[in-house]
Amino acid sequence: MSPAAHTGEAPPGLLQQARALLIRTMTFYRDDPRTASWLRERLERIDEPLRIAVTGRVKSGKSTLINALVGADLAPSDAEERTQVNTVYQYGPEPRITAYTPHGAAQNVPVSTLDPGTIRDLQRWRPDEVARLVIDSPSPGLQAITLIETPGVSSSAVKETGRSALAQILTEADAVLYLTRHPHQTDIQFLQSAHELQVARRAPINTILALSRADETGSGSSDAMPAADKVARQYRDEPRVRSFAQYVLPVAGLLGQAAATLSAQDVDVLAELARLPAEERENLLLSADRFVNSTTPETIPAATRQDLLRRLGRFGVEHATTLIAGGSGDLKKLRSALLADSRLNDLQEAVHQQFVERQEALRARSVLMAVDMVLRANPRSGAQQLRGEFERLLANAHEWDELRLLSALHSGQVRLPGREQEAAERLLGAFGSQRRTRLGLGTDTSEAELADRAGEALVRWRLLATDPMQDSVHREAARTVLRSCERLIAG
């Protein structure tokens, strides 16, 4: 019987157990300074903000989405892929830039403010000169998360350093936001290769696949977002994608970023376009060249048209004018509508639900992956006990099962009928991990009432888990909820 059972206390959670195993592994390898130091870094990261790698195809909009997630214009964006250096955006009380060489030497770059142009120039250094940039920013959006921007997976920097080096960076992050305009075979193969370790296969819970620049899907016209939704559904239901990601979301990052910076003067220009007859406006926006070189209406100069295209894209200009023509000419209303239609809100909610709210499960995943990597790379006599404890934690990591099912329920990969969906999400901890919250009861509920409600839930989900009328997917989902009910009773 465990000490927790003697004292009546709840047993330690998965992250606590993983931390304890990491410390024991670090002690076991204390005569190997390099390994012990590497493990110590992983131990220190447990108490730091969650690390999210933002990676993907070349020119997939990584910088745009980083700025959207942070809520500040930090990451520079260019018409061409320029990022050659892994760039870490983290919280700091004062603006600061530190450049690290491949040999680990650090050099502070004197700055008083964080200008995207300065960061852009540093990101263009070759990987053999600068291995990593660390950007400290006082932006509140970085207090809970640290973002790691990588070069595009097909960029010259990755070709020089190797895809294995990029995959290594992804294993060092707690979570991954992967961006691509349209999933290619190389994207899927790369993400599968990053999930080859035993822990990653057991817990495919740390990746969100975003179909970025969704406004360019198809012809990039008004039906672009519905077309992107269709593509996202197709890939979300593909078994290979489900093996490493629960969320597949379309997002128009440029449109969302433009919504945040739209001015009253911009609205005036867009309103002039909106006053044109619908057919004339549609013909005007058939191509970027036609729009820029047109003299209709004459009051809008070519430079202004070019600026609108750069900031909103052709889809954004067309969509904004349609919204204004429909009555959304107020700046606040137009910003809100553009932001909603960009799906940035959906992505931010997915990041919050999948990553931030369940960060203990993700941190435990990172810790156990570090232990697994060391035990595989440096096997030695006497490590069998560590390996046995690792395997036990891996087999009993119910927190990962909960997170995987929650993600599947939120994304629509798994659908439960009627009230069962809401009940399952609550019992799985979607609205809070406290016992009373999971059972839908108030803070003044007695232990007897808690036990009764937990018992009722247990009986209900046990029946669903063994119902022969349900398919295997729903029975497996019910078994996961059933185990959560068993833990609520044990607690």
Briefly summarize what is shown.
The chain has helices spanning 3-7, 14-28, 33-45, 62-70, 116-123, 156-161, 163-172, 185-193, 198-202, 224-236, 239-242, 253-261, 264-274, 278-284, 288-293, 302-325, 331-342, 344-356, 359-377, 384-395, 398-411, 419-427, 435-438, 447-465, 472-490, and strands at 50-56, 86-91, 96-100, 106-109, 132-137, 145-149, 175-180, 207-212, 247-251.
Keywords, separated by commas or semicolons:
491 residues; alpha/beta; Rossmann fold; 9-stranded mixed beta sheet; 25 helices; globular
Protein architecture, described:
The chain contains 25 helices and nine strands. It is of the alpha/beta class. Among the domains are: 221 residues, Rossmann fold, CATH 3.40.50.300; 68 residues, no CATH class. Strands 4-3-5-2-6-1-7-8-9 form a nine-stranded mixed β-sheet, with helices on both faces. The longest helix has 24 residues. 37% of the residues are buried. The N terminus is likely disordered.
How are the secondary structure elements laid out?
Elements: H1 3-7, H2 14-28, H3 33-45, E1 50-56, H4 62-70, E2 86-91, E3 96-100, E4 106-109, H5 116-123, E5 132-137, E6 145-149, H6 156-161, H7 163-172, E7 175-180, H8 185-193, H9 198-202, E8 207-212, H10 224-236, H11 239-242, E9 247-251, H12 253-261, H13 264-274, H14 278-284, H15 288-293, H16 302-325, H17 331-342, H18 344-356, H19 359-377, H20 384-395, H21 398-411, H22 419-427, H23 435-438, H24 447-465, H25 472-490
Parallel strand pairs: 1-6, 1-7, 2-5, 7-8, 8-9
Antiparallel strand pairs: 2-6, 3-4, 3-5
Helix pairs in contact: 2-3, 2-19, 2-20, 3-19, 4-12, 12-16, 12-17, 13-16, 19-20, 21-25, 24-25
